[in-house]
């Protein structure tokens, strides 16, 4: 009975653990030698050491220069060797947890009895009963548990669990040396405040490393292990007071064991805790560059290179312990961030996103967006934050993207040059086009659309001659629809696919006649990578964010670029030659980065979204702008974005300036370099009948001031100078629709004062108020576009009337799903992409000439 009473006292004390209880209780209740022999065999026939899964650790992301910009983890832990832990920390943890650790073989009977007596006299836990090796076993079993049931068994407060722990502890003592056991314990133990392991605890509690811990700091951490939750210093003063008590207890114990002097203990106890809590952000929301972080995280989870199955990849992510060097360039990233912030506010529902990609490697240099990453208060859908990776596709955490508009014309241009078209080659275009024949998809199916009319920007029914240069610079819809038909729709689609073009939602590309007008929804990373192919002279490289991975074992794995020559070099050079003219002869005229560059604007019909994609030999970038609530329900007309008001947002009026303002500083340390010249023997000598005469007549009209855009500007300047007391009109010709229909209605133009145009741009008014221009940021009026100042005709409009689209005429149009919710429901099916028609920003206020591609039709 004495033995049983002793066992009961052990249970009441709650500190002895299982080993002594097993030794004392089992013989008494067995009643015979056979039972005693069985108990003996329990501790002689030992199992293998417990299974040890790799400990979950922090994964760190580094930029190209080796600076950390993000980390994520399941457990905030960084495993370190025992040699990287201060000697005083090792002594402190052994003193308070298992003073005879280096003397026993896993079971310290004397220490257990001493802890029993001490804790019984104190009326509480003053010393631990389980050996340090037993505590390691318990942590291993918890960490290695593959289910909640296993985890509960590892924590169960019963005798069977204690016996199991002891058997495993004895097995560990046979497997490892004492220092190896101590190292494992220091890396697995939880210290509180989210810190797992001594290194993370040193950083979290004191903003230092485990190798630099002082006596007071080491005693504090050693005291926290026994009660990590009630001594968590991040939870307030009461918890810190309990932590201080535990620290002083450790110091007294160390002095009692002669590990430190009484004077050292007294001096350390008189010192304050000295807590310097260091934030340990986990997850991309707390990263300086969250969108890039999210891209890397999703790449690790989705790319088979990092695991054969999704489960393997998730497990590897959870275990962590990786150091991932990325291609993020801080200079380019900050340039993109600042450029977007200059034009678009986080609170705006209109969102801008940009991606920068290095030609010849595909390395992503920057990913930026106008919204901050994270959840809005109350989980509101609209606010300054978003949980979508706006510059990326769905596979990398992005939304559904925005229709790319006339940026897709470059694929038709490249296809034509590949097939033997020359500079100057072209043809006369009509005033309208019905795609009723000649269009077949890559399955050989006819995809003609006889119910659709495509109009030129002038809206006057007249066409004109265009070459591949003028058709590109002016972004003429009808020219490109006809060119696509001549070179073959499927061939254009194949060119786009070869340049890495895939829809943002991962679905198949829509192969329809308006493919060249950018009907497919895209993301900036994909578009930037495809344009980088031209900069790399036809070498396409898959977008790459991860450059090198260092595993927990220290081994480094280099991730090389994945590139393929998909276009002949001379063809790419010819494309670069044509697209360079966009800056001095086309829709981006007047905007420059002061070095050779090429690119293409993109604006969708009804101003549902706007793009600019451009490049130099060293860097490519793409910028998209659209409304996050749904591009067709909320077109970019009559909107205030940032501090500016836009009558309509075009590729050259907002994405273009963002691109310019980001590329300049991003390339500040890069030597300017031009593109190789085109092979004129192969591509020179083309001819378009009537083009020279048409261009000469155009120039004569400009000199006479008969251009309608010039007349409008003279009236605006006259009014602003007080020469015309009347409120200026924007000359809406009779019989032409001013804005696109909504719910079957046609809106009338409104008159009101407008600001003076700055370098050829005019700003639409808001409620009759003048808006001050700002350094070429104002929006240029757009000729003959639906909803523009001239109000070009919609498909189906005749004699100024707007007809409703016929049933089935717009079947299949998605209209850009809501970027925040991915919801297509409730969205009005509207006209297809119109192309650009952006008016270039010119030094003398000149706009683009009639014939600019606008007024796109409904499409299937």
Quick take:
The chain is built from 26 helices and 24 strands. It is of the alpha+beta class.
Query: End-to-end span in angstroms?
Result: 91 Å
Unreliable residue runs: 1-37, 715-860
Number of strands: 24
Percent helix among the residues? 25-40%
Neighbour order of strands in the largest sheet: 2-1-5-17-18
Q: Structural class of the secondary structure composition?
A: alpha+beta
Q: Radius of gyration from the CA trace?
A: 36 Å
Q: Please tell me what the overall shape is.
A: elongated
Major sheet size, sense and barrel closure:
5 strands, mixed
Strand fraction band? Answer: 5-15%
Mean pLDDT: 79
Describe the protein.
It is built from 26 helices and 24 strands. With 860 residues, the chain is α+β, with helices and mostly antiparallel strands. The radius of gyration is 36 Å and the shape is elongated. A hairpin with a 5-residue loop joins strand 17 and strand 18.
Structural topology:
Layout: H1 2-13, H2 18-30, H3 33-42, E1 59-62, E2 68-72, H4 87-97, H5 109-122, H6 132-144, H7 148-155, H8 159-175, H9 178-188, E3 190-192, E4 195-196, H10 198-206, H11 215-224, H12 237-256, H13 262-270, H14 290-302, H15 310-319, E5 323-326, H16 330-343, E6 350-357, E7 364-369, E8 372-373, E9 385-386, E10 402-403, H17 409-418, E11 426-429, E12 432-433, E13 454-455, E14 464-467, H18 468-473, H19 477-487, H20 489-498, E15 521-522, H21 524-535, E16 539-541, E17 546-550, E18 556-558, E19 563-565, H22 569-584, E20 598-603, E21 609-615, E22 620-627, E23 637-641, E24 644-648, H23 655-666, H24 680-683, H25 691-704, H26 708-720
Parallel strand pairs: 1-5, 8-9
Antiparallel strand pairs: 1-2, 3-4, 5-17, 6-7, 6-22, 10-15, 11-14, 12-13, 16-19, 17-18, 20-21, 21-22, 23-24
Helix pairs in contact: 1-2, 2-3, 2-8, 4-11, 4-12, 6-7, 6-8, 6-9, 11-12, 12-13, 14-15, 16-23, 17-19, 17-20, 17-22
């Amino acid at each position: 009975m004495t033995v049983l009473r002793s066992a009961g006292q052990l249970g009441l004390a709650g500190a002895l653990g299982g080993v002594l209880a097993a030794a004392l209780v089992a013989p008494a209740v067995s009643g015979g030698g056979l039972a005693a022999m069985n108990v003996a065999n329990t501790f002689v026939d030992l199992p293998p050491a417990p299974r040890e899964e790799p400990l979950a650790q922090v994964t760190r992301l580094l930029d190209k220069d080796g600076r950390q910009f993000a980390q994520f983890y399941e457990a905030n832990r960084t495993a370190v060797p025992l040699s990287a832990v201060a000697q005083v920390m090792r002594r402190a943890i052994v003193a308070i947890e298992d003073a005879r650790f280096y003397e026993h073989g896993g079971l310290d009977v004397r220490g257990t009895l001493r802890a029993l007596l001490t804790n019984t006299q104190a009326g509480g836990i003053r010393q631990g009963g389980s050996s340090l090796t037993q505590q390691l076993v318990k942590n291993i079993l918890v960490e290695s548990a593959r289910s909640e049931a296993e985890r509960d068994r590892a924590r169960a407060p019963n005798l069977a669990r204690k016996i199991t722990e002891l058997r495993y502890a004895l097995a560990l003592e046979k497997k490892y040396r004492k220092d190896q056991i101590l190292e494992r314990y220091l890396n697995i133990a939880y210290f509180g405040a989210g810190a797992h392991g001594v290194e993370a605890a040193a950083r979290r509690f004191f903003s230092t490393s485990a190798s630099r811990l002082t006596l007071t700091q080491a005693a504090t951490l050693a005291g926290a292990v026994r009660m990590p939750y009630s001594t968590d210093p991040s939870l307030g003063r009461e918890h810190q007071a309990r932590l201080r008590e535990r620290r002083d207890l450790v110091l007294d114990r160390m002095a009692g064991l002669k590990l430190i002097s009484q004077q050292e203990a007294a001096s350390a106890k008189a010192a304050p805790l000295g807590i310097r809590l260091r934030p340990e952000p986990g997850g991309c929301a707390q990263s300086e560059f969250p969108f890039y972080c999210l891209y890397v995280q999703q790449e690790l989870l989705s790319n088979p290179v990092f695991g054969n199955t999704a489960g393997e990849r998730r497990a590897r992510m959870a275990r962590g312990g990786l150091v991932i060097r990325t291609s993020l360039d801080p200079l380019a990233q900050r340039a993109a961030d600042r450029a977007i912030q200059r034009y678009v506010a986080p609170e705006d529902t209109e969102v801008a996103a940009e991606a920068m990609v290095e030609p010849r490697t595909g390395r992503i240099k920057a990913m930026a967006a106008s919204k901050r990453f994270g959840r809005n208060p109350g989980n509101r859908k609209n606010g300054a934050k978003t949980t979508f990776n706006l510059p990326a596709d769905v596979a990398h955490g992005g939304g559904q993207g925005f229709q790319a508009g006339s940026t897709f014309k470059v694929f038709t241009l490249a296809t034509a040059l590949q097939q033997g078209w020359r500079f100057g080659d072209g043809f006369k275009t009509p005033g309208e086009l019905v795609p009723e024949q000649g269009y077949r998809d890559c399955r050989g199916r006819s995809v003609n659309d006889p119910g659709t009319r495509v109009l030129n920007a002038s809206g006057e029914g007249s066409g004109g001659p265009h070459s591949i240069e003028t058709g590109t610079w002016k972004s003429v819809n009808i020219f490109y629809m006809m060119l696509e038909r001549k070179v073959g729709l499927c061939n254009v689609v194949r060119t786009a696919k070869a340049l890495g073009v895939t829809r943002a939602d991962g679905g198949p590309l829509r192969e329809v006649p308006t493919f060249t007008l950018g009907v497919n929804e895209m993301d900036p990373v994909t578009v930037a990578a495809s344009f980088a192919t031209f900069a790399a002279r036809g070498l396409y490289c898959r977008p790459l964010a991860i450059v090198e991975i260092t595993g927990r074992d220290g081994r480094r794995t280099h991730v090389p670029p994945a590139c393929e020559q998909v276009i002949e070099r001379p063809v790419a050079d010819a494309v670069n030659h044509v697209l360079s003219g966009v800056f001095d002869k086309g829709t981006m005229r007047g905007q420059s980065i002061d070095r050779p560059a090429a690119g293409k604007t993109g604006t969708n019909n009804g101003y549902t979204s706007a793009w600019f994609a451009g490049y130099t030999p060293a860097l490519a970038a793409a910028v998209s702008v659209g409304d996050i609530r749904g591009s067709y329900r909320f077109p970019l007309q009559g909107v205030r974005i940032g501090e500016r008001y836009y009558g309509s947002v075009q590729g050259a009026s907002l994405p273009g300036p963002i691109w310019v303002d980001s590329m300049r500083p991003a390339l500040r340390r890069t030597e300017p370099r031009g593109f190789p010249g085109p092979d004129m023997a192969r591509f020179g000598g083309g001819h378009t009948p009537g083009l020279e005469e048409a261009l000469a007549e155009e120039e004569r009209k400009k000199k006479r001031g008969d251009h309608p855009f010039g007349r409008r500007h003279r009236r605006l300047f006259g009014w602003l100078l007080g020469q015309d007391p009347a409120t200026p009109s924007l000359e809406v010709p009779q019989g032409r629709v001013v804005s696109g229909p909504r719910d079957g209605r046609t809106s009338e133009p409104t008159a009101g004062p407008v600001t003076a145009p700055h370098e050829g741009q005019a700003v639409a008014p808001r409620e009759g108020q003048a808006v001050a221009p700002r350094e070429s940021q104002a929006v240029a009026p757009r000729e003959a576009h639906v909803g523009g100042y001239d109000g070009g005709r919609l498909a189906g409009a005749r004699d100024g009337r707007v007809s409703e689209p016929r049933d089935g005429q717009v079947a299949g149009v998605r209209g850009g799903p809501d970027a925040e919710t991915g919801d297509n429901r409730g969205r009005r099916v509207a006209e297809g992409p119109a192309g650009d028609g952006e008016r270039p920003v010119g030094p003398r206020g000149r706009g683009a000439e009639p014939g600019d591609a606008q007024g796109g039709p409904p499409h299937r």
